[in-house]
Amino acid sequence: MDNHRHSEAVASAPAVSGAKHSEPSASIVGGSGERRALRLWTLGLALLAFAVRSPGLFAGFVFDDAFSIEERVPAQWSHIRAFFTTDQSAFFGSNFYRPVLNLWYEFLYTFCGAHAAAWHLASILLHVACTLLVFRLALVVIEHRFAAWMAAALFAVHPAHVEAISWASAMGDPLLTLFLLLSVLAFLRWMEQGRAVWWAASFAAGVACIFTKETAVVLPVVLLVSALTLGSRGRSASQIAGATLPFFAVAAIFLGIRQSVLHSFSHPLTVATNAQMIFTWPAALLFYLRHMFWPSVVVPFYPLQIVKSWNSSEFFLPLLILIAICAVLGYLLWRAAGWRRLCLCLAWTFVPLAPALYLKALAPFELVHDRFLYAPLVGFCLAAALVLQWAAERIQAHTQFRVLPLAALALIPLLG
User: Fold this and answer.
1) Which of 348, 316, 333 is nearest to 390 (CA)?
2) Strand (E) positions, 155-280?
């Protein structure tokens, strides 16, 4: 690293002789001036995240919120156990066993009633909290304060978040993302300091995440990859794997309880074979990649249909395009960040998206949704900031022209 990079770094790690990239660090160092500057960056990020989403405060309820919230019957808090032992959706054959999310809704209804503005405020504040945690994670991954801030700012303003933030019934995705980020950050702190309280905090957040929504059962995978790729802090891979085993156990317990409560692993809403569902994956993944990079049209429903045959152009064409795009982007990210951070960004982008590819659990008219991108956009924004930082440093080395701030000034308003 050159002197300029050291002056901008917020986290540090020991250099590895002959390595292409240094190991990221979970420590944020610096004196009182550094901490004061960090607080200002954080405040600016919180204001940006809130300001971009604040017009939603003046909107009413959307979709089925009017039914699920305005007609809601308050639960008896003395019967809290029922949230974990029964299906609270009141629909026969539902796929909704989400006890922590139901508790969250009851908590909001207790304080917000049926006031739409209060529900929207809670959703926006939840998004602000997620944005600030993305910033903390980015500081660990990117080691460059402005690039880390840009990653979080891109997450804050990304248009694909509209559904997850504006639709109160979709609040589960921001909520599980909040717990996921808390769990990973606390686990990294435990790896650094070795204090049991941080592992306990990570485990508690992990349990809350998994019991928020069924798609969060992938948390142990994201946690394990994050811990292994962000440096061992003197711990072996086997020690790290052992520390994550309880998280895998909780995910298995959740699936077992969910199976018992719903009387099935899943109640299909779309008639399709497993093969037909797999044939549809390339088109679905291409949709999600397109909406990560350029969400020019954001609507509640998209006309993606089940692909019936392997020899259809609806299967082969998206598959070829997907392979080509992933190869180019993967190579670019590897050049920019190295193998470890490439694996980290891929894990944060595609592992949380994997449960959404079980398309049979979705209705035929809603096989893809923007809200499923809420957690995956953490990985995408980290990757985008890493590539932009790498490109900016290469340009600055030849021209002394500061490209990264200009890129942020162009991209953030464009997406927002």
Assistant:
1) 333
2) none
How far is Cα of residue 306 from the mean position of the Cα atoms in its chain? Answer: 26
Residues 6+ apart with CB under 8 A from 107: none
d(CA 383, CA 142) in angstroms, rounded, equals 9
- The Cβ of residue 218 has, within 10 Å, a number of other Cβ atoms equal to 21
pLDDT band for 233, please (50, 70, 90 cuts): low
Tokens at residue 154, please? Answer: 């891109």
Looking at this protein, which amino acid is placed at residue 125?
A: L
Confidence label for 409 from pLDDT (cuts 50, 70 and 90): low
Rounded Cα distance, 214 and 355, in Å? 8
Query: Which among 363, 359, 279, 289 is positioned nearest to 314, based on CA atoms?
Result: 279
What's the pTM value of the predicted model, to 2 decimals? Answer: 0.87
What was the pLDDT predicted at 399?
65
DSSP-assigned states of every residue in 74-86? PPPGGGTTHHHHS
What's the Cα-to-Cα distance from 371 to each of 51, 58, 252, 298, 413, rounded to whole Å? 20, 21, 25, 11, 21
Q: Which residue has the tokens 């996921």?
A: 180
Distances (CA, A) of 293 to 57, 373, 415: 27, 12, 9
| pLDDT of 90 over the 70 cut | no
Identify which has the larger pLDDT, 402 or 113.
113
Taking 80 as the threshold, does the pLDDT of residue 296 lie above it? no
Instruction: Say which residue, 38 or 396, is predicted with more confidence.
Output: 38
Distance CA 221, CA 182 (A): 15
- Three-class secondary structure assignment of 133-171: HHHHHHHHHHCCHHHHHHHHHHHHHCHHHHHHHHCHHHC
Q: How far is CA 145 from the centre of its chain?
A: 20
What are the tokens at 224?
A: 């394990």
Q: Provide the pLDDT confidence category of residue 407 given band limits of 50, 70 and 90.
A: low
pLDDT digits (tens, 9 = 90+) for 125-136: 999 999 999 999
**C-alpha to C-alpha distance for 174 and 158, rounded to whole angstroms:** 13
CB atoms within 10 A of CB 272: 19
Query: The tokens 């003197």 sit on which residue?
Result: 234
- Which residues lie below 8 Å from residue 248, measured CB to CB, with a gap of 6+? 220
| pLDDT given for residue 36 in this prediction | 85
